Amino acid sequence: MSGSNILFVLSGSIACYKACDAISRLVQCGHRVRTVATEAAQRFVGVATLEGLTGEPVATDLFAAGGALDHLGLMRWADLTIVCPATAHTLNRAAAGLGDDLAGALLLAHDWKKPLLFAPAMNPAMWSHPATVASVERLRGWGARFVAVGAGRTACGDVGEGRLAEPAEIVAVIEAALARPVRRLRVLVTGGGTTEPIDGVRVLANTSTGATSALLADHFARRGHDVTLLRAHSAVRAQPGVRDVTFGTFAELDTALTGLLAGEDFAVVLHAAAVSDFAVEAIVVDGVAHPPGPAKLGSASAPTLRLRPNPKLLDTLRTRSRHAGLQVVAFKLTRSATVAETEAAVATLFARGTVDFVVHNDLANREAGSGAFPADIWPAGGERVVHCADRPALAVALEKLLAAGPSAATV
Ligand SMILES: Cc1cc2nc3c(=O)[nH]c(=O)nc-3n(C[C@H](O)[C@H](O)[C@H](O)COP(=O)(O)O)c2cc1C
Q: Which of 16, 84, 156, 388 is catalytic?
């Protein structure tokens, strides 16, 4: 969306030079950009550079003569605010609600009906410090969104997570946040398959790639929704505008769901992860049962696996959620199912009253050449509502249904 008012807050990191590139790209896209620089940011980038890039004066001082109420005016003016680069200090200060300089006062006065983004940049130790981790979680809980940090060598020579995202990614996330859907949803998408440990090196896994989940996550983010993709470590990633959280085992997925649903106000869960129905209870070798553990089992005698059922995560999503009207979408994959078998499979998911929609597809309908994977969307207690020829059509139809609200049943 070109022509928006973007408030760009820079704090004191070497990555200020990359922020300048992002600002330049935003101006070239037709946005109006105004900048605020902390005292430390001004050690890394000159006020003249920011003025030159934006054609606007740079705000730096909460008590500037004639500008004492600038922090309120700037917040009203902005369609979106981004803190980029966001230092550890500025993140922690924002999470504590401190307003002892212009940047802090602006963030305290933020109008939560408008997007607030943070693009962190810091050393890996600062990024993984418990204070920073807790602040990020707190700010997310209030509705702030984060541009994913990069991994690799940071300016200080340390290797790990914490690098500022690339300018093109920052611009893409801003553009996605500026898209105005009829109703902005906070969406949690799960994807990919769980891996259940057998021993220290072997797992029970499945063939899910997470491609559908990544595509859905990308679509919802492009449409301006706030999206988190909770995916298996090896599953397909979404684009930078989607927050990325990963899991391995059923237990890790279970724990992540509890934390996310209780901690944040998700309005929708698209539960497309291929969750193992069973976990390994014991490996029986020569009549002796061993619980799964870190050791690698020998290969002299063929073991027998004793499995136990995993609880159904779908049934508990609503009770774990802090959002009263949570909409839950379940996914059902069949292989060459008849109409009666499909109806029975879909009915099973609706039987416990914990699901709003079921997306069903059958492996036999996947088109070998194009890879198109037709799907049907079923509403609770109703007839099939939409037939979608492929995944992009599924993404469009789901967004339309879910954005219309909990009671919507037709497209
Ligand atoms: C050369 C140099 C580079 C720095 N880079 C970063 C950085 O990338 N991220 C960060 O969190 N702090 C960094 N710092 C430390 C911050 O500048 C410092 O904590 C400052 O107080 C932050 O203030 P502000 O958040 O109000 O801008 C750096 C300091 C120096 C001297």
A: 156
